[in-house]
Design a protein that fits this description.
The complex is a heterodimer of chains A (141) and B (406). Chain A is an alpha+beta fold. Chain A has 6 helices and 3 strands; from the N terminus they run H-E-E-E-H-H-H-H-H. Chain A has a 3-stranded antiparallel sheet with strand order 1-2-3. The chains are: A alpha+beta (141), B alpha/beta (406). At the A-B interface, strand 1, strand 2, strand 3, helix 2 and helix 5 of A face helix 9, helix 11 and helix 13 of B.
Chain lengths: 141, 406
């Protein structure tokens, strides 16, 4: 199968490979897929004031899966969380010119960013009763 | 300036035609272009003579009589003709076929076709090494069994089945025995009498001959095997397979068979040396790597290996200067990982992570070393990118995780 130039570029020079501390308060982690299906994506975001300031991924999967997750990390940096939530797989597939048999790779990347955002939101929903913002005095205790 | 071509490690898929084979074929396109069935002039006689010479060359590789060779368009047709032909011919007395789940699709799909028309088919499982036992075959045979079909060597793993022992079982039970020898023909010794083989499929292009020509060995004596033809017409090939013979192709097959057979002992030793060198380098330079299939009973040029926590297609993409294949779903139209590896008990993840490297006549040690270098570099790179590798490094058991299938 011939890959598009953009897939090859992301595969050979993946953006934002790595991990963030999944236990950190400002980090959301999404892990989607299954080894048995041939692809697993881990996508992480770090959020400040509702804006995604950093994103990292690790992907087990074909070149199109690696490229899809690499592209999404590139896109979401600097986006606010609501906008990132509205990323559609079709945009990813179009940007990378994925053939029909590889559309599932873009679906997985969409699922991964949504899962990361939900994880971040869940962490903060759980903390909601505590009044925010935390003052400097409290933080230094 | 010449552009470097990718290193070719996919000889199980096909091989280049040996220049000596091309040389032998050329006159039969132009000067000696006759129809081998033309009995009335010298053009036909010359073609017929060339076809009969090739028939003897192919027969010699498997210790058969030339009259027992039927020309076909390739091993897929040979498998179709053997399986459908025998079952149709014996339809009044038998309605059962025994085969193995790791067979090539040409065998499996022929069996499925027969199943839809009422034939019963037993698909024998294989063990962890990809092997089936003679006892399994013996237990599966009934008094209604028409045919047992077991491949000699597997296309994905190169695993060699205990054919002589299975042949003995079939002969004792008076059941016809077919083998798909596509991968093994002229690569390992074959003796149809000693192994009690009644039908054998082979193809020219796996052994440095042209594509589009194959053969089916059909035993003539003790027992005489009869087939219902699958292609009807002028009654060529003793009525087994009609159609004007592909004379240049057949001449090429004969020449290729003789060349490979003559050089077999030396070539086996050379290929095994290269393959073992490649395998040993990969195993010593990378962790969590597993060789698939029997380590002893394997074709000399075959290596099927799984790189855990790396998906096969991404590894193929990294090895863009090497031509090879993977058991990964992503490389198949069906999106299913290799059914052969799964039948051997590999989990889906390791099946997705497999590479097949098949060496051949023109493979050099330098090429092998370059491939091993590339693998070491990219296996490391892709694992650094793999969330599964990260989890394993963190001591997480991947089987303990509830994965969502998608």
């Amino acid at each position: 199968m011939a890959y598009s130039d953009k897939v090859i570029d992301h595969y050979e020079n993946p953006r934002n490979v790595g991990s963030l501390d999944k236990d950190a308060d400002d980090v959301g982690t999404g892990i989607v897929g299954a080894p048995a299906c041939g692809d697993v994506m881990k996508l992480q975001i770090r959020v400040e004031d509702g804006v995604i300031v950093d994103a990292r991924f690790k992907t087990y999967g074909c070149g199109s899966a690696i490229a899809s997750s690499s592209l999404v990390t590139e896109w979401v940096k600097g986006m606010n969380v609501e906008d990132a939530m509205s990323i559609q797989n079709a945009q990813i597939a179009e940007e990378l010119s994925l053939p029909p048999v590889k559309i599932h790779c873009s679906v997985l990347a969409e699922d991964a960013i949504k899962a990361a955002i939900r994880d971040y939101q869940a962490k903060h929903a759980a903390r909601a009763p505590r009044s925010e913002p935390v003052t400097e005095a409290e933080a230094s205790k | 300036m010449t552009v470097a071509r990718p290193i070719y490690l996919d000889h199980a898929a096909t091989t280049p035609v040996d220049p000596r084979v091309v040389e032998a074929m050329l006159p039969y396109f132009t000067d000696a272009f006759g129809n081998a069935a033309s009995r009335t002039h010298s053009y036909g006689w010359a073609a017929e003579e060339a076809v009969e010479r090739a028939r003897a060359q192919v027969a010699r590789v498997i210790a058969a009589d030339p009259k027992e060779i039927t020309w076909t368009s390739g091993a897929t047709e040979s498998n179709n003709l053997a399986i459908k032909g025998v079952v149709e011919y014996l339809a009044e007395s038998a309605d059962h076929v025994v085969t193995v789940i790791t067979e090539h699709k040409a065998v499996l799909d022929s069996c499925k076709y027969l199943e839809r028309r009422g034939t019963k088919v037993t698909y024998l499982p294989v063990d962890r090494e990809g092997l089936v036992t003679p006892q399994q075959v013996a237990d599966a045979i009934t008094d209604k069994t028409a045919l047992v079909s077991v491949m000699l060597a597997n296309n994905e793993t190169g695993v060699i089945q205990p054919l002589a022992e299975i042949g003995a079982v079939c002969r004792a039970r008076k059941v016809l025995f077919h083998t798909d020898a596509t991968q093994a023909f002229a690569k390992i010794p074959i003796d149809v009498d000693a192994m009690n083989i009644d039908l054998l499929s082979a193809s020219a292009h796996k052994t440095y001959g042209p594509k589009g020509v194959g053969a089916l060995y059909v035993r003539r004596r003790k027992p005489r095997v009869r087939l219902a033809p699958q292609i009807h017409g002028g009654g060529h090939e003793r009525g087994n397979r009609s159609g004007t013979l592909n004379v240049p192709g057949i001449v090429g097959f004969g020449t290729a068979a003789e060349l490979a057979h003559t050089a077999m002992a030396d070539e086996t030793a050379r290929l095994r040396g290269l393959r073992d060198h490649l395998r040993d380098r990969i195993l010593s330079e990378n962790e969590h790597v597993f060789v698939n299939g029997s380590p002893q009973r394997v074709l000399p040029g075959h290596l099927n290996i799984s790189f855990a926590y790396i998906e096969g297609e991404s590894l193929l993409m990294a090895l863009k200067d090497v031509a090879l294949s993977s058991g990964s779903a992503c490389t198949s139209a069906s999106l299913e990982p290799s059914y052969v590896l799964r039948a051997m008990g590999l989990n889906d993840e390791l099946a997705h992570s497999s590479l097949r490297m098949t060496l051949g006549r023109f493979t050099t040690r330098d090429e092998i070393d370059r491939v091993a270098d590339l693998l070491r570099r990219h296996v490391t790179r892709l694992r650094e990118m793999s969330p599964l590798w990260e989890m394993v490094q963190d001591g997480i058991d991947l089987n303990s995780i509830q994965w969502a299938a998608h």
